[in-house]
Design goal:
The chain is mainly α and 52 residues long. It contains three helices and no strands. The protein is globular, with a radius of gyration of 11 Å.
Length: 52
């Protein structure tokens, strides 16, 4: 899936997605939620591998 397709699928702009991917912008909780919904997973699952 291309960046454009994924951003569209998640309901976020390609420009925003690109800035996040380049580390120039941080994701909002709202954007994280949209991504989790697009992937069919719980929001918490996006963060399950993070080290405390």
């Amino acid at each position: 899936m291309s960046q454009m397709e994924f951003a569209d699928y998640c309901g976020i702009s390609l420009a925003y997605y690109g800035r996040v991917e380049l580390g120039r912008h941080s994701l909002t909780v709202s954007a994280c939620y949209k991504i989790s919904q697009a992937l069919g997973i719980r929001l918490a699952d996006l963060f399950s591998d993070l080290v405390e």
